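Protein modeling request. Please complete all fields; requests missing the sequence field cannot be processed.
Requester role: graduate student
Desired output: 3D structure, token encoding
Chains: 1
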Amino acid sequence: MDIQKITTRKIYEVIADQIKEQITSGQLKPGDKLPSTKELSERFQAGRSTVREALSALKAMGLVEIHQGEGSYVRTIDSGDVDLPEWNSLLMSRETILDLIEARQALEIANAGIAAEKRTEHDLRRFEAILERMERHLGDEEEGERSDIEFHLTLAQATHNDILARMIDSISSHMQLAIRETRRLQMYGSRAVSEQLWKEHQAVYEAIRDGNPEAAREEMRRHLFHVERVLVTFLQK
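Delivered output (237 residues):
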């Protein structure tokens, strides 16, 4: 007798599956813009954070592109992309999460040094706006996570190297799914922890602003060491 394992599905997974079905069936076509997070939240009768998790899952599958401030769009996909592996099983692997953390460290430390050499005034203004918002919302789980992600994506873009930006964007998408609850509760829900994270981001920014690659790499290394300690402690429970 064939027995299928009974699994408890989370709401974001159900939402992601419904949107995925519309994409793979052709109801949603490449280049189509998805409804806003607010509109999807109302349609699915789910919280906006849950909808954002669903969109992050679709992005990790390579089915949608998310543009900050613009919205989410259906990607052009090949026929083989429809049978992408389910990320849920992969994301449950402790080893995979540790590999993602290690890859992120290697990239982000290098990015910080490059950004210190290549950043523009426009990049600096973007950093300042993010840090101001981050400080204003200390202890706010959703805004803390959003600002943190935006800071690191802005850092990658400040390298003015499209390949580096795409690589960190991909890794960040998978990490958001793998450690979404940990990031929120352990890192952003506590005002004391989120304030420390803000100070670390501020230090990275100041080194980049001053055009000091060595200091930028060191401050990023220090920040990611702190983040890694939080995540590894959680994974060992």
